Amino acid sequence: MAELNPNIFFVAVEKVPDAVVVGMERVFDRGLHNVRFISRDAAALDEFFAPGEIARIYINFPDPWHKARQYKRRLTAPGFLKTYAGLLSPGGEIWFKTDNVPLFAWSQEQFCENGWTLREVTDDLHAGGCQGIMTDYEAKFHAQGVKINRLVAVRP
Ligand SMILES: C[S@@+](CC[C@H](N)C(=O)[O-])C[C@H]1O[C@@H](n2cnc3c(N)ncnc32)[C@H](O)[C@@H]1O
If residue 89 lies in a helix (H) or strand (E), which one and from where to where? Predict the structure, then answer.
């Protein structure tokens, strides 16, 4: 996406250093200058960004944290949504993709209960042909015939 959008500045957030290095190598190999990396937990986002500084957040295939008692760790949990709302600019959006049907349903509830407006909600993003840039997980799931859920949530 950074390659296709050279005038947009991207910040990649990933808590596992090895995964960060994979991303860094791809950026380096492509000679891109519009990407930076933060190797930290997304829970610390407000240490790195000023209120209203972010135009869009992509949440791609986050860990589902199946157990009910772990729900606060989901990247679409109310605590995270509050942080995102504070950092996004007016009209700012979250673009969320997951293969996980229960997480997708639960996340829609969280967005709605916390005042976000949803659009482009689909349980089969690629039904009419491949849409946009696929992440590594997305390409793998899509090749296996797994449907991809996607929504756009607009800041309350
Ligand atoms: C299932 S993988 C998906 C990787 C990639 N987004 C993709 O779509 O191919 C989930 C990734 O999210 C990262 N992650 C999960 N929770 C995180 C958090 N709270 N902060 C930062 N990264 C997180 C994990 O370390 C893991 O690399």
Answer: strand 88-98
Find out whether 17 and 50 touch, Cβ atoms under 8 Å. no
pTM score, two decimals?
0.96
Distance 61 CA to ligand 1 centre (A): 7
Whether 29 is catalytic: no
Pocket residues: Cβ below 6 A from ligand 1: 13-16, 19, 41-43, 60-63, 75, 135-138
Confidence band, pLDDT 50/70/90 cuts, at residue 108: very high
| Domains of the chain by start residue, with CATH | 1-40 (no CATH), 54-154 (3.40.50.150)
Testing ligand 1's pocket by substitution, the residue of 63, 74, 96 carrying the most ligand atoms inside 8 A of its CB is: 63
